[in-house]
Amino acid sequence: EKEGLPSAGMTREQLIKHEAEVVMNDMAKVVDSHVQKLEQMKARMETRRSNPAVAGQNEKIEALRRRIEHENAQYELERAQRAEAAKKKQEESRRRDFPAPE
Q1: Angle at Cα 58 formed by Cα 55 and Cα 60, nearest 5°?
Q2: Is the model more confident about 8 or about 60?
Q3: 3-class state of residue 88 by DSSP
Q4: Is residue 97 part of a domain?
Q5: Would you say residue 79 lies in a domain?
Q6: Which of 3, 33, 90, 99 is least surrounded by CB atoms within 10 angstroms?
Q7: Alpha carbon distances (Å) from 24 to 18, 58, 67, 87, 97
Q8: What is d(CA 98, CA 102) in angstroms, rounded to the nearest whole number?
Q9: What domain range is 49 assigned to?
Q10: Is the distance from CB of 86 to CB of 79 less than 8 angstroms?
């Protein structure tokens, strides 16, 4: 058991739900951090793009922007897949612990 979890008095289903919420909150923080870094990089690129001394760098900047957007999309897809897997695991656990009456 992890330290700090309010597990006393919680049913297995409540504990699983709580753990899923903690994981989702942690993932949301990571995504927010990635989005913030992306916004900072976009701002820096815009500053460089408007500077005539680096006007020839526009193609490199555009390629970097596309790569960052692709990586961000990949990360979002993986995050969604992990969330779906956690949800499916929670549902399977719920069905196992509380089988339907026959």
Answers
A1: 130
A2: 60
A3: helix
A4: no
A5: yes
A6: 3
A7: 10, 37, 26, 11, 23
A8: 12
A9: 12-91
A10: no
Query: In the block, which residue shows the tokens 């929670």?
Result: 90
CA distance 88 to 90: 5
Mean pLDDT of the chain: 84
Assigned domain for 7 exists: no
The Cα–Cα gap between 32 and 30 comes to 5
Q: Are 31 and 76 in contact (CB under 8 A)?
A: yes
Q: What is the mean pLDDT of residues 80-85?
A: 93
- Name the domain count of the chain: 1
* pLDDT, average across residues 83-92: 90
| Angle at the Cα of 88 from the Cα atoms of 84 and 94, rounded to 5 degrees | 145
Q: Which residue in the block uniquely carries the two structure tokens 């995050």?
A: 79
Tell me how far apart the alpha carbons of residues 5 and 22 are, in angstroms, rounded to a whole number.
10
40 domain residue, yes or no? yes
